[in-house]
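Recap from last week: sequence in, structure out.
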Amino acid sequence: MERWFFMTAPTYEFGFIGTGNMGGALAQALCQTVSPDQVLLANRTAAKAEVLAGRLGCDVGGNEDVARQCCFLLLGVKPQMMADTLAPLRDILSRRADRFVLVTMAAGITMERLAALAGGNYPVIRIMPNTPCAVGAGVVLYTANELVTAEELERFTGAFAAAGVLDPLEERLMDAGSAVSGCGPAFICQIVEALSDGGVACGLPRKKALLYAAQMVQGTAKLLLETGEHPAALKDAVCSPGGSTIAGVRALERAGVRGAVMDAVIAAVERTKEL
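Predicted structure tokens:
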């Protein structure tokens, strides 16, 4: 079969295959740093990509367009869908004569596995973002294989600076890091919901209870980060002898909340390894 090659430079700097919760959050952050005309969006349900593109000012195409025309190809699909997503693109990628970088955000898929699914020994960046990236308060853990140049990694991390904190992490620790920062928003939302439910049970209007709980979480996180204090020290600072806070802390300890949260992280890591 005759083989041909795409010789032109990439049309877009960044392309997304998959614009779900995570891909969409990253696209929103990216377009605060990079001109939207440098971003191409593709999604299995085209209408979803079109709505996001309309809001951000990006272009919309198909998976094949992203594979042909983008320098950084961000793969925002579920781990169990990665093989089927990449299979039709393998030939397109193999024909490219220009340089490109694959970026995976799929839990549990190593860089080596991703390159194999894509059909070549390609440069790969592996990231583990979280949904707060959409509002510039996220965490993006990242690592890269040896084929990614320092300049490419700098371009990539600089482009996503508006997402929040970008932190390099060894690939062997990615599953653990993702369980804390990537799954953590779901865990914290359960806690915020429980706090607001408790407030409602004690007479607070729902809207006020939710506001107080969410703002408290935001403020406490900021206090931890800015002071550098250990969480236990900040907890102790709130607990007056014989007071209401220590009574509540005792109830949490009696219910095993600390152990349950630890178990949630461990369960998330174990499930990731099964994917």
